[in-house]
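Example 9 (inverse folding). The structure is encoded as follows.
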């Protein structure tokens, strides 16, 4: 069972929502964060508190991606119904967390496959394919954190990720050390392979007042005609 939260649902009610730099609401209808946590893994907030924090930070769309479990799914669906009428889009996901790579699986409704501690390439590819079987999206998270902070050995190269057909690389991660928040190398790689692999920003919020990077630095702006359910 998740532990009690030290925060309340009203902590961000009086905060005027942030407006991201250069945001044009005529050009974009979603301000998205693909990566955050709740107390269903190692986060500090409930699902509802997570959503309220995102609203205060200027987001109107988010995916809950707790580590290696989707025990939150039923509660997410309840909160989702409450906020959809307020124009806030909430989707489910999981951060597939290993000692080689962290992948976000977005828009999936279940995960019942064992997650290996140190997967071989074949296991990673198999997991990616299982996401695509559900119509989901795959993102490689915080490469600089993986390599420079966690010191993961044998992290797949960006070229390998491209070969495996992943959809996005996270180019901003706010819960990394300041020098690793923006991933210039991944940004340039995605620009070089534009149309084949994309880029997303992620807060990776665990505790709203304890970001290693000092705060929120990126918002992903999207224009979707058919919003996901």
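The amino acid assigned to each position is listed next.
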């Amino acid at each position: 069972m998740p532990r009690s939260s030290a925060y309340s649902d009203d902590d961000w009610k009086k905060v005027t929502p942030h407006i991201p730099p250069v945001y044009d609401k005529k050009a974009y209808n979603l301000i998205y964060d693909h990566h955050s946590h709740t107390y269903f893994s190692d986060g500090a907030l409930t699902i509802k508190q997570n959503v309220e924090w995102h609203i205060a930070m200027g987001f109107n769309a988010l995916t809950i991606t707790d580590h290696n479990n989707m025990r939150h799914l039923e509660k997410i669906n309840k909160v989702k119904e409450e906020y959809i009428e307020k124009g806030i889009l909430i989707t489910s996901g999981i951060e597939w967390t290993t000692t080689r790579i962290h992948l976000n699986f977005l828009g999936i409704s279940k995960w019942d496959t064992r997650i290996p501690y140190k997967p071989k390439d074949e296991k990673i590819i198999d997991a990616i394919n299982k996401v695509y079987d559900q119509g989901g999206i795959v993102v490689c998270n915080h490469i600089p954190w993986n390599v420079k902070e966690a010191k993961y050995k044998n992290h797949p190269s960006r070229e390998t990720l491209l070969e495996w057909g992943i959809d996005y690389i996270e180019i901003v991660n706010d819960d990394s050390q300041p020098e690793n928040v923006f991933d210039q190398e991944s940004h340039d790689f995605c620009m070089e392979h534009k149309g084949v692999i994309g880029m997303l920003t992620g807060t990776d919020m665990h505790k709203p007042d304890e970001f290693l990077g000092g705060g929120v630095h990126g918002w992903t702006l999207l224009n979707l005609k058919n919003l996901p359910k």
